[in-house]
Amino acid sequence: MSLTFNESSHRYRLDGKPVRSVTGLIGAGVPKPGLMYWSANQAAEAAADWAASFKELPPSEAAWNLASIDRDALYETWRKAPWKKRDEAAVRGTAVHALAERVVHGEDVDVPDDLVPYVEGYVKFLDEWEIEPVSTERSVASREHNFSGRYDLIARSPLLFDGEPFSADIKTSNKVYADTAMQVAAYSRAEFQVTDDDPDAELPIPDVAGAIVVHVTSEGTTPYWLCRNREEIDAAFSLFLSAYAVAKRPSGDLKEVQRD
To answer: For residues 11 and 101, what is the distance between their CA atoms, to the nearest angstrom?
Structure first.
């Protein structure tokens, strides 16, 4: 097989061998100091909620509960609080992506109540910007640089990039960030794409004129510029290759220098 994607594990195989993903390489190559503070805040919030729960108990019952605390279990609960929050957001994001792919192709969908605001905002964005899909959710790869990934949407709009194809990355996170430009640039400068139905047939990737990130939230959908032209895509791809080099840096313990 040429390029396969395992949706459950979110892993790729190129020519039968594991290959690292674009998002994984960026995550390993670009420092994210804010993530450390976010993780600490999530753990602290879980601890504060737990402590506040004792305020509703009679003093004698509160004391009994405190005396019966399993320290290791409590540690595990608070330690995993950031990842629980992350996983909940990932489940929501996956559901929104799946619905977005169907909606952009004009399909009728049944939307869970909690996701209705997301989908309504996305539909409004599609209508207002006259979005016409070219292709959606396809895996891409580069043998030269040994990476793979999966783009959300390549589309056209008479209101963007003079009607030429452009790349759009859909995000459901609390914020969107400029380093997403590296992600879409890597997808755009990969060597080929495949469909899930025929992973052996290597297809050319459309020559996109630029890229945007589409921020889908419960409050509405907002597009932001990532790359306004092909030159900015090339510049973002150069940054991606730098992040790639950092991600591939040697790791592990150093060996002590011995005298001859």
So the answer is: 20
Is pLDDT above 90 for 126? yes
Q: Is the pLDDT at 67 greater than 80, yes or no?
A: no
Asked if residue 218 lies in contact with residue 206, where contact means CB atoms within 8 angstroms, the answer is no
Contacts of 14 by beta carbon, 8 Å cutoff, 6+ apart: 2, 3, 141, 143, 146, 148
Q: Which helix (H) or strand (E) covers residue 11, if one does?
A: strand 11-14
Distance CA 222, CA 191 (A): 30
CA 132 to CA 112: how far, in whole Å?
A: 25
Domain boundaries, the chain: 41-79, 93-247
DSSP state letters, 150-166: EEEEEEEBTTBGGG--E
Confidence check: pLDDT of 66 > 70: no
pTM > 0.85: no
Enumerate long-range contacts of 47-54, CB under 8 Å, 24 or more apart: 47/78, 50/74, 50/77, 50/78
Contact 236, 244 (CB under 8 A): no
